[in-house]
Amino acid sequence: MAVAGKYREKSVLKTTSDPAWLNLRRAFLEINTEKEFGPMTTTILRQACRMFQAGGAALLLANKLTGMLEIAAVQNISAEALEAYRMQPESTLALESPGQEEDSSGALNRIRSLGAGFPQQVILPIQLQNKIIGCLILAAAHFLENSKDRQERLEIFLEYMAQAIENAYLIFQLRQQNSNLEMMMTRLQNTQNHLKRAEKMALVGKIATAVAHEMRNPLTIISTTLQLVYEKMPAGHSDRELYAAMIGKVRTVDQTIKELMNFARPVQIQLKSVKLSEVIARVATFIGKKYAGHKLELQVEVSPELPAIYVDEEQLQRILINLFLNAYNFLPEGGTVRLAASHAEKSPWLDFSFSDNGPGISPEHAQQIFEPFFSTRTDGTGLGLFLVKHLLEEMNGSIEVNSAASQGAEFRIKLPLEA
């Protein structure tokens, strides 16, 4: 009969003109509009205080794993007193779990006994399908007056509140699972892309190795012959300049073959936690010694306080040197190379910028610079930036170019943080 009475009162919500029941109906509608867990619990407390003339309220829900009551929302009740109450040993509810079961009456009696901690407040258990899921604390509420109507409205409110909380929790779980699924799909897509790149690189590597092997032996003979003829020519010979140019071209081809063979060699990526500032310091020392006679300025704005990145240190040095060589080939005397890094809060990436004040890159060339064998220099191999992009992708990073003709070039790199 008690259950039937509840359903009877719920039907009254649709037909009654009683202001108290209309208030309850409006409260349900407002709670129902909130789909997010946090705003919904705040709305529940606001409506409870309004309907039952409470000076304050708090909602405590049992953790589904530990059974410990946790503060979900509070309004006009001392947070210190509430936390002290929550930490009492009695405030642990026994939820149904493997090896530990308790009927709802035991938890119900313990919840009601906790009211002694709040003489001016009332502790109300929240039940769902005969299980205690938490409690509602109302401060200085007037619903305890001897009114059957108020008691009925309170029972319906608590029942509806329990169902709304459970629905919000289920929605939260679904969103969490959907987020996890999207993350797994992204990882799967990244893995598939990685495998495709690996297959492509393996094929290109085999071709490069074969071509380099076939070309290197005859090229060595040609280079040696040209060098011998050139050295025997008198200083004023008319063909001496021509032979010098041919020797230079042969060296360019030989350098291309070396880069092809380096490119064809499989790269073993060994990821570890490193500080970008320390890697840059080592690269800057190497560049400073190698290009000591060149009037180039290297500006480094990378704080050692930045979080560690998870990369292959040796390959990162190779990337930085390749970027510097690329800039060096285009910079005028007195040019500047600037290295800067930053990290946005909660971002899984370290943002790194490598820029110069050289002639820049035209929009049409910017779309091609990471393709193999593309170069705007007559003696360029077109493999430097392609290798940079490849190595960064192997380390789960990325690179893009931001440049315009005559305005310098900037390479924006994202490096993954240590997990």
Describe this structure in words.
The structure is a single chain. With 419 residues, this protein is α+β, with helices and mostly antiparallel strands. It folds into three domains: 2-176, Beta-Lactamase; 177-266, Helix Hairpins (Orthogonal Bundle); 268-419, Histidine kinase-like ATPase, C-terminal domain (Heat Shock Protein 90), CATH 3.30.565. It is 52% helix and 17% strand. It is built from eleven helices and eleven strands. The protein has helices at 2-15, 19-33, 37-51, 79-86, 104-113, 148-232, 240-264, 276-290, 313-328, 363-366, 384-394, and strands at 56-62, 69-75, 121-128, 131-139, 272-274, 297-301, 309-311, 336-342, 349-356, 398-403, 409-416. The strands form three sheets. A five-stranded mixed sheet has the order 6-8-9-11-10, with helices on one face. Strands 2-1-4-3 form a four-stranded antiparallel sheet, with helices on both faces. A hairpin with a 6-residue loop joins strand 8 and strand 9. Helix 3 runs antiparallel to helix 6 and helix 9 (313-328) runs antiparallel to helix 11. The longest helix has 85 residues, at 148-232. The radius of gyration is 36 Å and the shape is elongated. The model is unreliable at 1-12, 89-104 and 110-119 (pLDDT under 50).
Question: Which runs of at least 5 residues are low in confidence (pLDDT < 50)?
Answer: 1-12, 89-104, 110-119
What integer is the average pLDDT? 78
Given the C-alpha coordinates, what overall shape results?
Answer: elongated
- Report the count of strand segments: 11
Query: What structural category do the secondary elements indicate?
Result: alpha+beta
- Count of alpha and pi helical runs: 11
Helix content: 40-55%
How are the strands of the largest sheet arranged?
6-8-9-11-10
Q: Topology as H/E string?
A: HHHEEHHEEHHEHEEHEEHHEE
- Major sheet characteristics: 5 strands, mixed
Q: Work out the radius of gyration.
A: 36 Å
